[in-house]
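For consistency, the fold was encoded as C-alpha cells, as this record shows:
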Amino acid sequence: MAAEGRFEEALQLIKQDNPLPMICGAICNRRCEDACTRGTIDQPLAIDEIKKYIASLDMNKDTRYVPLCEKHDGGMWDENYKVAVIGGGPAGLAAAYFLRLDGYPVTVFEREKRAGGMMLNGIPSYRLEKEVVQSEIDIIEAMGVEFKYGVNVGSDVTIQDLRDQGYKAFFIAIGMQGGRMAGV
C-alpha cells in the first residue's frame, strides 16, 4: 500500500496490530531485515522506516486517523465494563488502545505528570523525540481513553477504591523504573 501511495490505508492496516507505529519505527533495531528474503534479490525491506514514514505523514495532518472504536456488534460497552489500566508506559498504552478499540471504557492511571513511561525517561531524545511519544498518546486519547495523571495506585487510591468506583477489570503495567545491571 505504501508503494502505491495509499498511505492512510497502510496506516489503518498497521494500526490493527501496532498502536505505536511511529515510536516503533524510531526505536526498532531492524532484526527482521536480517531475515528478510527480499535481501536475496536486492536489499531487505526497511519496515521500520516505512511505518515511521507513514505515521509521520499522519502526525503532520490537520485531521489525523483515529481508529474506529466499537465492539463486535457495532456498539460500545457500557459503564458496567469499565477497565482501569495502571501505568501509562508502552504496555499500559497498548492495553488501553486495544481495549478501547474493542469498545471498552478505559481509564489510564499514571503516577507521573504525563504518560509514556520509559519511552520518555529512558530513551534519549535524539533516538525518540518526546513530541512523537505525545503524538501517539494524543491518538489514544482521541479514541476516548481517559488519562488520570499524578495518581499512585496503592497509596493515592487502592484497587478496592477503583472497584468501588465501578472498575471491573484491571491491567497492571507499572513498568521497570528500578535500576538493573544489564548483564553485559
User: Anything to note?
Assistant: Helices lie at 7-14, 21-27, 31-35, 47-59, 90-101, 118-121, 130-142, 159-164. The mean pLDDT is 91. The chain has eight helices and four strands. The beta strands are 83-86, 106-110, 146-149, 169-172.
